[in-house]
Amino acid sequence: MKNMLIAEDNEQIAVVLGEYAKQEGFNVFFAADGEAASAVFAKEKLDIILLDIMMPKKDGFAVCREIRQTSNVPVIMITARGEDFERIMGLDIGADDYIVKPFSPAEVMARVRAVLRRMDTASGQKNILKYDNLQIDLDSYTVTVTGKDISLTKKEIELLWLLASNYGKVFSRDNLLDSIWGYDYFGDTRTVDSHIKRLRAKLNAGSIYGKMIKTVWGVGYKFETAENEE
After folding, report:
1. What are residue 222's DSSP bridge partners?
2. Tens digit of each residue's pLDDT (9 = 90 or more) over 159-202
3. What is the pLDDT of residues 24-37, one digit of tens each?
4. Distance between CA 95 and CA 91 in Å, rounded?
5. pTM above 0.70, yes or no
6. How far apart are CA 142 and CA 81, in angstroms?
7. What structural domains does the chain harbor?
8. Residue 156 in contact with residue 202, Cβ under 8 Å?
């Protein structure tokens, strides 16, 4: 049985989500504020977290940052406003998806299933990619250059893996959006561009590998060594 944490200060919403989650076969833990959410995360082995942004004591952004320091457990952010900056910030700090209130509990469970399917697919690959001194390990979600860890978010690692494991193939922004964020993601292609920009910057710090992520103008992006640049 998979474990789910529902971190939500609105008791009515939490109870309804909990009932739907139990029907899906989850063992459910609850937290009514950010500090309680952190405590449950530290104590329990969780398979997915529903994390409200606006919570007492510690907001969802702070909790998500804390989680991502040690874990890649899937996190779905819940926001009451649905403003672009909240969605982008949540994804940038490592959330796997977001959902805007008011929502249907059935839709939330559909998002949960979609995120877990993507995680199962990724973990099932059991692969390590190497390009000279660059190593991408999708099993442990780590990227190293000459043995030194590069601090990347989970989405940045998945984006790098997709490009590097399809050497020379051009992906449109829509392709990348669907592959990494899922077909039901309601954001736009600016999300892809911002992630590519940060990924290049992090890889370029002390290495040339950021330059391997090439822009194909009017189309999208590909991964290719400098020698093959047209």
Report:
1. 214
2. 898 888 888 888 888 888 877 876 555 556 778 888 899 888 88
3. 899 999 999 999 99
4. 5
5. no
6. 33
7. 3-122 (3.40.50.2300), 126-228 (1.10.10.10)
8. yes
